[in-house]
Design a protein that fits this description.
The protein is mainly α. The chain has four helices and no strands. Helix content is 70%, strand content 0%. Helix 1 packs across helix 2.
Length: 115
Amino acid sequence: MSPQAEGIRAVARVASGGVVMGMSKQMTFTLACALVLATVIPGAAGYLSARLEAIEAAERNLRAVEARLNARMVREGREAKEERPVSLPAPCVPAPVPLSSALPASFTDGLRHPR
């Protein structure tokens, strides 16, 4: 029987509360933890290395796109003899607010009817 099969059997026995082949519960628990760690650690390492490779590939792609954009801008800058006009939108100016609506009625009564 392979060591992995023994470990799986040990985990099953621990779950049912039994003792495997005269081993103590502590030893069975230790083997079960070792088996779980033996699968989790390589899986986590593989996941993290794949994520790092994806980040590095994205960074390489970004640098390539930036280089193409810079080359295009330089090429267009040489071809264009004068600057292209830029149209800017008109500034936002708030509409004038009538004095009567900006102040409370008690203030505006005195302005309309001087005493």
